[in-house]
Structures are given as structure tokens and as C-alpha cells.
Amino acid sequence: MKKYFTLMILAVLGGLFMMSCERTDTVLVEDNDTYPVMKDVTGTFTSGNNYTLNQSISIANSDVVLVYRNYNSNSGSSPVWQLVPKTYFLSGARELDYNFLFDASRVEIYTEANFDQATMSSDEKNAYLNNQTFRIVLVPASRTSKTANKVNYEDYNAVVKYYNLKEPK
Questions:
Q1: Which residue among 24, 27, 127, 155 has its CA within the 20 to 30 Å range from the CA of 96?
Q2: Extents of the domains making up the chain
């Protein structure tokens, strides 16, 4: 009887011990079907298009969109990418802003100014409005992580390196 009682106590204590154990296995899932994508869009901002360029995309609502402007558009020089939004301070206290909006199906890149953009000189239009090239970077939310906030998103090359992006053809 004493042996039976000892076994019962061990069984009860073992059951209590097992109930207090918590399983905390972490399952890592690699997402092989979504990956960062870059698209280039070139266009001219005019009053006819409300100083807006539109590009169709297809992303999940949780994904991230970054837009960069080729600072050297129209110069024939190598691209220099600047993160949008961006403000340029022109002569005469004029300000020109590049900005963008996006949803799951499109990116809208636009300019705004504290003056009538139609009054810009030919040189200014060539530098800021005509044949402007933008690079749209689509980053699936599954590719962002806790370390993504350490990326300097203003540095295009740092973003390309961090997300292992391939240049568009």
C-alpha cells in the first residue's frame, strides 16, 4: 500500500509539473513568393495632368512603398536617387514639393508649389517638371523586420543593399 501511495503522489506531482510547462517553440517561415520590387516611371508634370504622375501597382494593404526621384533627370548623368517627399527652394522664396500617395493598386506622385508652376522658366521646367524619372520601391510587409528601422531610407543604396534589390532593366 505504501508503494502504491508513493506512485500516486509521484504521478500527481509529475502531472502538475507537466501542466506548468509552457511550449514556446518558434517556427520560422521563409516567404519565398513575395519579394521587393522596383519600378521606374518617367513623366512630365503639367497643368493638364494636375502635376501628377500615376503608376499602377499590386500590393497588399500592409506593404511599404518608397519613392525616389532621379535628381539627374534630363542631365544625361548617372542617376542620383533622392527620397520623396522632397522640397526645393527656388529663387524668389518659391518652394516646389514632390510628394506621393499610394494604395494597394496605384502610386500617385505629384508636385505642389507656393506659386503657379506654369510660371516656371524653361530651365526650371527642365530641371523639375519635364521627363522626371522616379523609382518606386515596393517592399512586402513580410520583408520588414525589427531591424528595418535601422535602415537609412534616404540613402537609396542602403535600401537596395538591405532588401537585396535588383536594379530594374
A1: 155
A2: 37-163
For the segment 10-61, what is each residue's pLDDT rounded down to a tens digit?
555 555 555 544 444 444 334 444 456 899 999 999 999 999 999 999 888 8
Task: Tell which CATH classification among 1.10.8, 3.40.50, 2.60.40, 2.30.30 matches the domain 37-163.
Answer: 2.60.40
Residue in the block written with cell 542620383 = 80
Q: Which three cell numbers stand for residue 60?
A: 497588399
Residue listed under C-alpha cell 501628377: 52
What is the C-alpha to C-alpha distance for residues 40 and 165, in angstroms, rounded to an integer?
13
* Long-range contacts formed by 23-29: CB under 8 A, 24+ apart: none
pTM for the model stands at: 0.74
